[in-house]
Amino acid sequence: MSSAISPLAPKDVPDMPVIAGLKLATAEAGIRYKGRTDVLLAVMDRGTTVAGVFTRSKCPSAPVEWCRAKLARGAARALVVNSGNANAFTGKTGRQATALTAAIAAKAVGCSPNDVFLASTGVIGEPLDATKFDGVLGHLAETAAPGDWLGAAKAIMTTDTFPKVATAAVKLGKAKVTISGMAKGAGMIAPDMATMLAFVFTDAPITAAALQSLLKNGVEDTFNAVTIDGDTSTSDTLLAFATGAAAAHGAPRISRASDPRLKAFTNAFRSVLANLAEQVARDGEGARKLVEITVEGAVSKPSARKIAMSVANSPLVKTAIAGEDANWGRVVMAVGKAGEPANRDKLSIFFNGIRVAKSGARDPAYDEAQVSEAMKQPRIAIKIGLGLGKGRDRVLTCDLTKEYVAINGDYRS
Amino acid sequence: MSSAISPLAPKDVPDMPVIAGLKLATAEAGIRYKGRTDVLLAVMDRGTTVAGVFTRSKCPSAPVEWCRAKLARGAARALVVNSGNANAFTGKTGRQATALTAAIAAKAVGCSPNDVFLASTGVIGEPLDATKFDGVLGHLAETAAPGDWLGAAKAIMTTDTFPKVATAAVKLGKAKVTISGMAKGAGMIAPDMATMLAFVFTDAPITAAALQSLLKNGVEDTFNAVTIDGDTSTSDTLLAFATGAAAAHGAPRISRASDPRLKAFTNAFRSVLANLAEQVARDGEGARKLVEITVEGAVSKPSARKIAMSVANSPLVKTAIAGEDANWGRVVMAVGKAGEPANRDKLSIFFNGIRVAKSGARDPAYDEAQVSEAMKQPRIAIKIGLGLGKGRDRVLTCDLTKEYVAINGDYRS
């Protein structure tokens, strides 16, 4: 397992401002790792609303089922996240572990277990010993403070090579509100499970229904448009919490996502999601290239998405990019296998702005040396023109390197 | 690029009997390679029927489009296969190249160009210079003989590490008939295209319609149940030819696939397809393990197929197998992401006959040492019990190794 920081990691980490109504704390609960934090407690003020989107897996983890069940109430006071054990495929034991964790957190924070949200990442199929949270969460609730975002983002990492945070500030009415979030990427640790977890917090006063609508709309072109290897985790979780504390300095209370006063907020919220999602792609296992795939001229946006994902998940395309090879033949293959309308004789393909194929054949003006030079960049943009309609979409992925195979296959050798 | 023979190659090559009414010949046409054969001509007697199935890619190669157009006539006299150039994504030039190749072959054999079938594998997007066949095919038609199957199977290889042939003999009525075939696998050669090609020949007298029906039924659980990397080629082609020569020694003429006299033949035909398809999996790029995935208890066979393919195409499952890790957590993940009905709490998973998970949790009796030993085998059988219905299916794949990434990504470095 490589622990070197991804060469695609952002150069700068933003200053993470305090979110009024939110406190964070981390500890070493000894779930699986030694000598590192592995549990995060976020404590939110009374009145905090919550929204969530989860893995579409038919075999979701116990914490995902827990959160789904509690989400309808729309209220949250605490979030407990542990790394080291995913509490997935753990049957009745798993459900008991979520109930016990929530009970311990509720007691520590002084709220109902129904107001506790949970997420776990790490080994799958191993029972999660929730008694390890006893004492730990009580201490965390006492020491929680509004500050250490990087510490929080580190506590939830598995094989992530860098902590992922993002923030934005924007006016809601005349009040300044803040949106900050953290994510962990699709990492793997022997013999564990890839999982994407992300948590976004704001002090804006927004109802749970409006927040859910914002989240659902925001995720479609951000987290849902990122793929590392096409393998959907049992545990993918994205939760958003709105403490509402900004109401105290004049932010209007928002109950509908379509409220025109929410426009700037909606854009800022989406930018935080997009920033975190891109960081997940930048920390793809073994990734050396960030790859952006844009499909234009499809019959519809969903059709463009399906074609873009077919390209993004193609091992042949991804290995070619790892080899710095502008192999548009493999792009054609991946377009063709997507099953969506495509006319070979209208296809055009660009690598980093250089057209290599047009009208169903190699571009006669294609300069191999120029393209080879472009393929050395750490960011590769593949644009595919279908020439059929106005459907357009964009997804992010990374290349497929031997390091990916090493991370995921070598630990038994 | 590795040229070592796959450790999964069959130990024995069968004696390939003559098929009456069929002659084979190979040559070095210099399409792309030096010092090896790269063109195969098969010449069939008058009266030969033909059936075919092709890639479902929306961007098929020119030879695929050529064959599709000619198939309706149901008659064949010649098959020309070249390696080194796929004649895919070559636009109008590609169509001209197929027409010219067919014209040259037709003249050489003495038939209509409509009776000539074509397949190409190799580099994509490069114009195929069909004038290179001029002279070559004439000489091949003169020297074609009923014998050299291995030579034929070698001429169509790209990065295949061994030639793939299979044969079966069976009674049709009271006459012995023979079914023999060859295939090439999903290989890659810089900067080329993965392609599966297979050709099956028989001396049985079967109409084109009956042969098409046999082929369509036979392919479903053989070639269509094999995946190397989920990347469907633009050029995948499986053609079957029936010379009908066995009628001369008493084989009845068959015009319907449902004819009861065809039962043994149908089974033998299917066994040749299954044999060739398994050899393709055994020669998957970088493969060190042959992996058989069986799904039982699904709501239907198509549902079982979709789940089995989700597991077979999962990079995380495939890298785990490369690492000799019985990582059933990743199998659960791949079942869950398939989008088909599955109940986590009813799931059971076996590796090489050893149950590692049952009823949605780790099997308490699971002996890690025993399973680790089993994972060292070159053939890994993963059985997944869903416990929902009677749907069952089986697919073949191989593991995902660093060698796969090296073959497909390294040639620019």
Topology:
2 copies of one chain form a homodimer.
Chain A: E1 22-27, E2 39-44, E3 49-54, H1 62-71, E4 78-85, H2 91-109, E5 116-123, H3 136-143, H4 149-155, E6 164-172, E7 175-184, E8 197-202, H5 208-220, E9 237-242, H6 263-282, E10 290-298, H7 301-312, H8 315-322, H9 328-337, E11 348-351, E12 354-358, E13 361-362, H10 368-374, E14 379-385, E15 391-398, H11 402-409
Parallel strand pairs in A: 4-5, 8-9, 10-14
Antiparallel strand pairs in A: 1-2, 2-4, 3-9, 6-7, 7-8, 10-15, 11-12, 11-14, 12-13
Observed structural traits:
homodimer, 413 residues, alpha+beta, L-amino peptidase D-ALA esterase/amidase, Ubiquitin-like (UB roll), 2 domains, six-stranded mixed β-sheet, five-stranded mixed β-sheet, globular
Low-confidence segments of chain A: 188-193
CATH architecture of the largest domain in chain A: 4-Layer Sandwich
First-to-last CA distance of chain A: 12 Å
Q: Choose one word for the global shape of chain A.
A: globular
Query: What is the mean predicted local confidence, pLDDT of chain A?
Result: 91
How many distinct folded domains of chain A?
2
- Secondary-structure element pattern of chain A, one letter each: EEEHEHEHHEEEHEHEHHHEEEHEEH
User: How is the CATH topology of the largest domain in chain A named?
Assistant: L-amino peptidase D-ALA esterase/amidase
CATH superfamily grouping of the largest domain in chain A: L-amino peptidase D-ALA esterase/amidase
- Helical fraction of chain A: 25-40%
**Tally of individual helices of chain A:** 11
Largest sheet of chain A: 6 strands, mixed
